[in-house]
Amino acid sequence: MKRLLILFLSFISVEIFAQNETRTPIDTLSTKDKYVKILIYNDMTWDSLSLPAPKHVNSEVYASDWKTNDHNAYRNFDISTLPDTIVLALVEDLSDFCMPRQGFVFSKYGMRHGRAHTGSDIPLHIGDTVRSAFEGKVRFAGDCGGYGNLIVVRHANGLETYYGHLSKILVQENEPVNVGEAIGLGGSTGHSTGPHLHFETRYKGFPFDPETIVSWQDSSLRCDTLVLPRNKLNSTSRYGSSSSGSAVASSGGGTWHTIRQGDTLSAIARRYGTSVSKICSLNSNLTANTVLKLGRKIRVK
Fold it and tell me: CA 291, CA 301: separation in Å to the nearest integer?
């Protein structure tokens, strides 16, 4: 009898092992934390699945002047207390940026019809996805007069980005967001003459031309570090005007990308608005058939 029990237990162990060897995921369940999912397998077992979350959500920059009921949390901020030149590290790597919406700018930053236009307008269709330009934390999400449905995301360097005229908001206040995460759907709410995204960049509540850091033509980030004179924090100073803010390129010059899991040359080329052949010409020992090693830095522009 004892021998039979041992044989039975051995059979069960083999069966369980075999099931675990062949199990495949069939469904996922959401949890209260959007960065944690429950993964269900075909043998009715489950695992906790952790998704990549923003790295800097606990930065002290999210503790001060944090208002969720006002799009401008710095209304009483004294701009004269800022240094003459503001230096902001935008990203650790140039790939830590995503265009909020691909497209040309049909209405630029600056004075328009005698009034200040504090952002760049990008055309889109109602329902098109709008993405967070950098990782950060949602400070404001809701209806905001002329902005219509507006999302304000604060980033770890103190920069804030605005996404206006949305048809739908997909995030809520105090929610961390990753770079490239879908945060809203394009629309024409508020004071809008047609569907488009109104995109702003602000520091301490003061706007500056988004084109200082974003190249709309190349669909890429101009720099990894921003050097911005304080007097350019106003609604009249466009990028390219005298004494405008400047881009500080990555070390070595040009624009560089660090290879990550899942990267392909074609995907990298699309991201930076270039071609595989152009990237290969900028890098020695790199061809269209080269196996990309994780962590390798390649020049893309």
Answer: 20
Tokens 């449905």, residue located: 149
What is the third-level CATH fold of 256-299? Membrane-bound Lytic Murein Transglycosylase D; Chain A (3.10.350)
Range(s) of the chain covered by CATH 2.70.70.10: 60-243
Strand partners, 163: 151, 199
CA–CA distance, 86 with 84 (Å, rounded to integer): 7
Strand 36-41 vs strand 46-50: parallel, antiparallel, or unpaired?
antiparallel
- Whether 161 and 133 have beta carbons less than 8 Å apart is answered as yes
In whole angstroms, what is the distance from residue 162 CA to residue 201 CA?
Answer: 6
- Tell me the pLDDT tens digit for each residue of 58-112: 788 999 999 999 999 999 999 999 999 898 889 887 778 999 998 889 899 988 8
The CATH number, out of the four listed (3.40.190.10, 2.40.10.410, 2.70.70.10, 3.30.450.40), of the domain defined by the range 60-243: 2.70.70.10
Output b/e per residue, 17-43; b: 16+ Cβ within 10 A: eeeeeeeeeeeeeeeeeeeebeeebee
